[in-house]
Design brief:
Layout lengths: L5 E7 L5 E4 H9 L3 H4 L2 H16 L3 H13 L1 H4 L2
Antiparallel strand pairs: 1-2
Helix pairs in contact: 1-3, 3-4
Length: 78
C-alpha cells in the first residue's frame, strides 16, 4: 500500500489542520522533537503506520487509531 494512501477518516489536529494520508501522519511524527518521537505512544503509532504501508488491509484502521491515541493521550489522562 503506498504511503499516499488516505485514511478512511481524517485525523483532526488541534488548530484545525488534518492528516489525510499515511505519509502526512509519518511526516507529522518525524517533525516532533526527538524526545517526543521516542515516547512509547509515538513509537507504537510509527510501527502501525509502517505495517499499514507494508501490508494494507486492516492495518490502516489500526494506524489511524494509534495516531489518535498518541495525539490525544494527554487529554485522555486528565
Amino acid at each position: 500500500m503506498p504511503w499516499s494512501t488516505p485514511f478512511d477518516e481524517l485525523i483532526a489536529l488541534r488548530g484545525g489542520r488534518t492528516l489525510t494520508t499515511l505519509q502526512q501522519a509519518a511526516d507529522y511524527v518525524m517533525k516532533l522533537p526527538k524526545a517526543d518521537q521516542q515516547e512509547a505512544r509515538w513509537q507504537t503509532a510509527v510501527e502501525h503506520l509502517i505495517r499499514a504501508a507494508e501490508t494494507g488491509g486492516g492495518w490502516l484502521v489500526f494506524a489511524r487509531i494509534a495516531m489518535m491515541q498518541a495525539l490525544y493521550a494527554d487529554e485522555n489522562n486528565r
